[in-house]
UniProtKB/TrEMBL annotation:
It holds the Pfam family Meth_synt_2. Residues 9-336 form the Cobalamin-independent methionine synthase MetE C-terminal/archaeal domain. InterPro entries: Met_Synth_C/arc, UROD/MetE-like_sf. Signal peptide: none annotated. It comes from Paenibacillus glycanilyticus. CDD domains: CIMS_C_terminal_like. This is Cobalamin-independent methionine synthase MetE C-terminal/archaeal domain-containing protein.
């Protein structure tokens, strides 16, 4: 049953061959068909590599994407992927200068990600679960550059986003998806006073936005197929092993752990930036899985196994062991640049997650 006791967030380091092919495509040296052929081969390789390393929820590594979120969002009707004058401000660095903007009424008619999932499922086979990751609807609400001529009020904008996402979820389901993960960094703006100030600078009230984020998730999932498992990964940013947000879950804890209609939550708990386990006391459902992201994806050094076991034991004070799972705190390559570690260190991390889980949940 997903999420598994040992799971992963989704993105994997891009191999050099794929990186070179993408650069050749951008330069006009190879065609889109040639790039797709390289992507196909590398995704098949990475599927088999995940299986060889004991990964039970297999992804395509997000190998066809440049960003974990913009590629999907920019493929929705009424949304455009474009080059900006400035990138996102991360700790100690600025990202590439790219983003998304609203160009028309938001909708979902077709999307290449559906075919991408079908390819993943076909080559994953029946001995593992094919896991699809997409950005949360909150990412369109909080990361897209708005157009007041198209959407004069937020309510209509939110309603169209929800409807588009409901169509997308059904399309993935019809393609055979039974394990869908929503990735979301918007919640991080609620975890610190700095984040609250960013919201206020945009004329937004943190308390009101907490309710907006909750409603976007719950209304998007209203009426989803019963046998589709939907989890959410809450992230504080991941770009070249850097982050953009800090703070514990305290401010949003009652909503996150007691007011969302998801089946599981992937949570960052790999360092002090994420706070303690106390907010988990608001978990009020026995069927809600809490996936503890105790293994960092931002560096290659393996954590102390006994320390990880001790932290799992600490979490049990708030959530029963049978509701807990283990994973890396984030993906290894949320953008095509990837985090600062080697591919072998990445596999070491994923094997380590399984090894620890096998000992904890005997």
């Amino acid at each position: 049953m997903v999420p598994f006791r040992y799971d992963q967030v989704g993105s994997l380091l891009r191999p050099e061959r794929l990186t070179e092919a993408r650069e050749q495509y951008k330069s006009g040296i190879i065609s889109s068909e040639q790039l797709t052929a390289v992507e196909d081969e590398e995704i098949i390789r990475i599927i088999n590599k995940q299986k060889d390393n004991g990964v039970a929820a297999v992804t395509d590594g997000e190998f066809r994407r440049s960003w974990w979120h913009f590629d999907f969002l920019g493929g929705l009707d009424g949304v455009e992927y474009y080059e900006k004058e400035a990138g996102l401000n991360f700790h100690k660095m600025e990202t590439r200068k790219e983003g998304i903007r609203i160009t028309g009424k938001i909708d979902f008619s077709s999307h290449p990600f559906i075919q991408h999932f079908e390819f993943l499922k076909q080559h994953a086979g029946d001995d593992v679960v094919a896991k699809q990751t997409i950005p949360s609807p909150n990412m369109l609400v909080y990361r897209a550059d708005q157009n007041e001529e198209i959407y004069k009020d937020r309510e209509t904008y939110h309603r169209d986003t929800i409807k588009a996402y409901q169509k997308a979820i059904q399309a993935f389901y019809d393609a055979g998806c039974r394990y869908l993960q929503l990735d979301d960094t918007a919640w991080a703006d609620l975890f610190s006073e700095e984040g609250h100030n960013k919201l206020r600078a945009k004329g937004l009230d943190p308390a009101e936005e907490l309710k907006v984020m909750q409603d976007m998730i719950n209304e998007t999932l209203a009426g989803k197929p019963e046998d589709l498992v939907v989890t959410m990964h809450i992230c504080r940013g991941n770009y070249k092993s850097n982050y953009f947000g800090s703070g514990g879950y305290d401010y949003a804890s009652e909503v996150l752990f007691g007011g969302l209609n998801v089946d599981g939550l992937f949570l960052e708990f790999d360092d002090e930036r994420s706070g303690g386990f106390e907010p988990l006391r608001y978990v009020n459902r026995k069927d809600l899985k809490i996936v503890l992201g105790l293994i960092t994806s931002k560096s290659g050094e393996l954590e102390d196994k006994e320390r990880i076991k001790a932290r799992i034991a600490e979490a049990v004070a708030y959530v029963p062991l049978e509701q807990l799972c283990l994973s890396p705190q984030c993906g290894f390559s949320s953008t095509e640049e990837g985090n600062i570690l080697t591919e072998e260190q990445q596999w070491d991390k994923l094997r380590y997650v399984k090894a620890i889980a096998d000992e904890v949940w005997k």
